[in-house]
Structure formats: structure tokens, C-alpha cells
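This part of the workshop introduces the protein records we will be handling. To make this concrete, we reproduce a full record directly below.
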Amino acid sequence: MTDGIANDRLEKLAAMQQAGQDPYPARVAKGQPIADLLSDFAARTGQIVTIAGRLGQIRDFGKLRFSHLTDRTGALQVAFQRDRLPTFWPERKLIEGNDLVSITGELGTTQKGEPTLWANEVTLACKALRPAPEKWHGLTDTEQRYRMRYVDLFANPEVRQAFAQRSKIVREVRHYFDSLGYLEVETPILQPIFGGASARPFVTHHNALDMKLYLRIAPELYLKRLLVGGMERVFEIGRVFRNEGISTRHNPEFTMLESYEAWADYRDIMARVEGLFAHLVQTVLVGKSVVHFRERDYDLKPPFQKARYLDLFAQQNPGVDWFDHASCVARARELHLKVDGIEPAKLANDVFEATVEDTLLGPIFVHDYPVAISPLAKRMREDARVTERFELFVAGMEIGNAFSELNDPIDQEQRLREQVAHKDDETPGEIDVDYVTALEFGMPPAGGLGIGIDRLCMLLSGASSIRDVVLFPLLRRLEATGEESKGP
């Protein structure tokens, strides 16, 4: 465990312990937020205050030492002067950059006018056995930053700010649905039958009940059971898990918002989505509706563009009939897509994804998806081949999925049977009989919505990769490749 720790830090740790000093005390004097001190610094000059946080690199000028102390709100220069610290001074070199300290002192300025805390008392809160990365040549390798997020956060203030913004986004999403009278609920993460989406699940086993369970790929079917129970507006913000690939848009576990509203349809949910974005523009983006994402600017101010799924498919694939398997196979081969063993509806949608999605700059609602790829959505009266479903795209990336919920138990059971009959790794192995039973008790007409919170955060923050908005993204273990974990 001590590999990579500098010997001089271990020696200083031992010296403190031998002198009877506790390098890891249970408590120290709590600090005032640095941002509060800086907000009215002139009025506070001369006051005695305490701040606590992580020390930066120490600059030694003999009888005077300088550093910066950083807490969760900001950073302030600290001056250590021999005449002010007669007891501390002989042991000053035991305190180093990256140590966590509590410092009490007088607020003032240097000769150059820089706001400074002139230390009167220094208390070590935690001895750091590893130094921080150098300011200009430190933790810059992208994968290392993800692996050592705990260092990334204190070494790169913009990273802390990005995750503070993520917290605000989630808070404002929750506030928006609260304001509309939705109830926030929690549904099972361990499920005996996975459903509510097309994705390969993670499988686990419950020993006491001796039964196979799945980490949920979506909370949908449980949330709609609540509509049957009379909870007419519900939402959940929670983790879902899909045992699939990893990319700049995909992480095996991610955060999903799902909401369901009785007596609504997919047009109503479009309005809810536009209302959500209007709210986020005002609260998170502070009224600035244009975001810079993947080298382009996007205006997130509603209303959003709308286009039919089949119209977009026809525009990018002239002469190809989505419902004609032979023509879709020929087109898929032109595109060098996998054809063998792919179920017809999935193959047709693969052609859509390969030819259409990158053209969807948006924000744009793509609506009226075919029934064959929408097993939980209500059919359109005007065209029974398609459903009342939409997806929101920005920059070619799906942000959300919604539809008028299928509440006909006979139709639902038939579609689930067809889905199981064409079973693959992403299809449930059995029909969720209890869900069909719930529909037989009667579910009101309803509109449902799913939004990937991580992708929403990417868009609003301009992050190019989902790993930049997930605190601890999944990575291959270094030990599995024969490498050793290294410090920054």
C-alpha cells in the first residue's frame, strides 16, 4: 500500500507521531466558506477567521511562506510568518502541500494587494502521504483522471464545477416534476423479469429465495403498475443497468428519469419535455438557451422541431420500404451492417440509426415509430402500423423517449408474446404475467417519458463524453492487464 509514497512524507509522519502529535485528529476547528469571505473581503479586513481545506504548493521565502488553501467554495492565499507563529515555526516543514489543515488568522492583503489570511494558528487535519499533481504537468491523462477521480476533483476546479452543475440539473429536474404535482417514488432495482426496454441485463442470484434476479434495465413496468393503483402522476430518478458496450454515450450503469402521467398522451408529454427544457434554461443555464456541444451551438429554447420517423427513413433511404424485409436487408448490406440472425424490425431500425440519427442536429422530436419496435406504446388510429411514440434528439444523440402508454391488456399480451417469440439477448425470456394482470384491472390513458440524466448533463455542460459527467465510470481493472495502479 505504500508503493509510490515519498519516503520524506513517511518520515515526517513518523516524526509527528513520535512527538505526540496526531496526524489524523478526529476533529479540528471548522472553517468559514472561502467564497463568503471573498464576497465582502474589504469589509472583513482585520477580522480573525478560520478556514479549512487542502494546501497548495508552498513557496518558501525564509521568514515568510505562502500557499493557497482550497475548500469546496474557492481558494484563498495563506501567509505563514515567523513572528506570528513562534510555536509552529520550528515544525513548519512537517506541513506540506496537499495536507489538509485548519488555519485561524487575520484577513488582510499583501503589498501587491492580494487577499490573504495571515496565519496565527495552524492545525493539521490530515497528513497526505502522496503529493498533489503539479499544477501544469499533473493529472492530465484522461483515463487516469477517471480512475483517480478523487485526485481529479481537487486538482482540477473545473471538474468540481461540472459535478456541482450536474447536482443542480438533477435538483431542477426534480423541482420541475414536483411543481406539476408528480409524486417521486422508488421501484425495485432487483427484478425477477427484466423489461421496459430492449437491452441485455446483468444477472444475479438471491441465495435465500434461490432465484435468478436481474438488475433493472428500466423502472417502466413498475411505475405503470402505480398508475393502475391510482397514483396518477409519478416519477423516479434512479440507476438502471445494461450489460452492453461502453462508449462516449454509454456507461453500463446510468441515471434515468422516468415519469408517467394519467389522462395524458404523447403530445402532452412533448409539451412537458419542452417545459422541462425551458425550466432548465432559466435555472441551470441562467437564461442562456444556446449551448456549445460537440463543436456546434444548439439553441435549447422551445418549441422544438418535429418530424415523422418513417418520413426521415424514406428521405435517407430512397426506394427502401421499412416494412419490406428484403429491401432493408439489401440496404443494410450496402451499409455493411450485420444482417444474419437479426430480427426484421431490429434490422430496419439499425438502418434508421445508421442513416438518419447523425443527421438529427435538433433539438427535434422524431415521432410515430413503428409498432414492431415499440411494444409498450399505443397504436395510432390513423395508421395501425405505427405508434404514438417520440424520441428527442440533439446532436444526433437520443436524449429522451416517450409514448402514449398501451393500456389494452389483450394487445399488450400479444405484443409481449411476439417479443418473446423473437427472443435474443436483449429480450425478456418470459412474459411479465403480473404486468398484464395489472392492466386487466384497468390503467387510465397515460403518457410516459424516459430521459437519460447523464446525456442531459452532457448536453447542458458541453461534455463530449458520458465519462465526464459520471463521477466513477466503469473501467477495466488495471490488474486484469498485468499493470499496477500508479499515483499521479
About this structure: Residues 480-486 have pLDDT under 50 and may be disordered. The domain at 7-132 is CATH 2.40.50.140 (OB fold (Dihydrolipoamide Acetyltransferase, E2P)). Residues 378 and 485 are 51 Å apart (CA to CA). Residues 157-179 form the longest helix (23 residues).
